[in-house]
Amino acid sequence: MTQIDQAISIREGEELDAAVVDQFMKQAIPGLTGQPVILQYPGGASNLTYQVDYDDRSFVLRRPPFGQIAKSAHDMMREARVMKALKPVYPYVPDIIAICDDHAVLGCDFYVMERLKGIILRQDFPEDLDLNEADTRKLCLNVIDKLVDLHKVDTAAAGLDQLGKGAGYVERQIGGWSNRFRKAKTDDVGDFETVMTWLDDKMPADVAQCLIHNDFRFDNVVLNPDNPFEVIGVLDWEMATIGDPLMDLGNSLAYWIEAGDDDVFRTMRRQPTHRPGMLTRKEVVDYYMEKSGYRAEQFDYYEIYGLFRLAVIMQQIYYRFYHGQTKDKRFAMFGQAINYLEQRCLKLIKASAL
Q1: Coil, strand, or helix at residue 96?
Q2: Confidence (pLDDT) at 73
Q3: How far apart are CA 220 and CA 228, in angstroms?
Q4: 199: buried, middle or exposed (CB in 10 Å: 19+, 13-18, 0-12)?
Q5: Exposed, middle or buried, 351 (CB in 10 Å: 0-12/13-18/19+)?
Q6: In Å, how far from its chain's centre is CA 207?
């Protein structure tokens, strides 16, 4: 059995009141006994994810970040509702066990779900996961297949067809993320105005309307520890909606760092897509289009959009760090990374045939 992903000690300033959590859990889950041991998963820079253990039972609690956050962001109730509706038609979603919208408990909305015990690939493979090049490719294709499967979900059957806002998804995304960046900009980052203008000028029509994850990457996928080629879970449904599948793929590729990328981009790697056997970004696009049936003559637009959106997400987080609303030291270097992403976008724009 390959090493199962484990939570670690809770970061300073993000502690939960164990007595309050215990009282809620025992009211929500009949027969639960013992005292909780609460740990925190180190990945993720948005919603916070904790492991809550009782003797031989283990759960996951998700809550928004501490500090001031945008009113429409981190909607835990929406995320839980999407997961409950999706589970019957997309079995990789963890079961929702309890939902709480009473802020007297933890000061925020939160939910508790089953813990899927498995492998989560972060920056590198676990030490005891030794895959050759062919097996790494097999694993890579299996993970991409789950994105293809998601984009084929019958949203009406899941009761999720009203989740989106209809046609015009691409236009809404460009306008929305541009506005978010301008509101969250700090003095030490570039203005992205050239990038935003290009995205607005070159905007394609929606390719399709389907269920999209909006944060699909290896560290949101859980693998079977007894068979690491098998995906048993897909996590983090915070931004799931009805939208354009190629925009979703572009979001995923923003994290897809290859062995041949420049030194700075490689320092931003958070998943093992650099390993021999992993597909290149171009191969991912070609494989996805072959399996999904969706087409785009030029994928440049979606790749640049994905990088820009990643920069905005990082900027929103960095804004909180910059203004002292969070002490998480992981965010201290985000400003430099955001400036790099702007230059990467500009370089791709210059080379684009669009």
Answers
A1: strand
A2: 61
A3: 14
A4: buried
A5: exposed
A6: 22
Kind and range of the H or E element at 24?
helix 18-28
Reply yes or no on whether the pLDDT at 72 is more than 60.
no
Domains of the chain in start order, with CATH, are: 18-114 (3.30.200.20), 133-351 (3.90.1200.10)
Residue with tokens 């003559």: 297
Q: So what's the pLDDT on residue 172?
A: 98
User: Is pLDDT at 70 greater than 60 in this prediction?
Assistant: no
Rounded (5°) CA angle 350-351-354: 90
Count of other CB atoms within 10 angstroms of residue 215: 21
> C-alpha angle with apex 279: 230 to 330, nearest 5 degrees?
80
- Per-residue pLDDT tens digits for 254-292: 999 999 999 999 999 999 999 999 999 999 999 999 999
Query: How is residue 274 annotated by DSSP?
Result: T
DSSP-assigned states of every residue in 109-135: -EEEEE---SB---SS--TT----HHH
